[in-house]
Predict the structure of GTP cyclohydrolase 1.
Amino acid sequence: MAIQLGCCSAEHGSRRETSGHARIQGGLVNKRDDIGNPPVSARPSQAEAEEAVRTLIRWAGDDPLREGLLQTPGRVTRAYTEFFSGYLSDPMEILATTFSEVDGYDEMVVLKDIRFESYCEHHMVPIIGRAHVAYLPEHRVVGISKLARLVDTYAKRLQIQEKMTVQIADALDTVLQPKGVGVILEAAHQCMSTRGVHKPGTSLVTSRMLGAFREDPSTRRELLSIIGNSTTAPLPNT
Ligand SMILES: [Zn+2]
């Protein structure tokens, strides 16, 4: 069942196609970016982060000093390092190497069923789903593993799905300058299944179509038929 409601999505619908180019939100190593993240230099220390976890344990009603919880703050911060590794990688760098020897290949390139794990910026619980990333090359292509890494770079941050969809599409559009870009994300939001309205089995579908995918209905139909079977399959491990 695919429905669109609830948390961790923007308020005004999701399957909206937009044009124009948002500024690319790159790595956050040295600067404050568009989404308001502080520069890395302002990060709290490891000890401060672990103390914050102890505070949350106490707040939940348990004793952070009991044996089973003693190592938990360290484990949680290590998990967070993994969950939010996207802040330390730069999408522009990932896409920096492109190839122009494509022997005249000018049909669409589609990498589908890219599993991703992201985290809703409202509740900090997982958003798990898959991405389909397509573009219509104009002379240049990028290695396919880079498309998967691009998805991960934006997924491994605090996100809403709509924003992530736009970020992936615009990064690809900016670097490759292809004839078109199409990005479709479908994901289950644990803030909807494990809390709040408690609706497991729902998935949120978002898309961004640029260039030929936006302007040419037959190109868009071709993309949708290529990924069509995926969108009816259950989401992985949700
Ligand atoms: Zn949420």
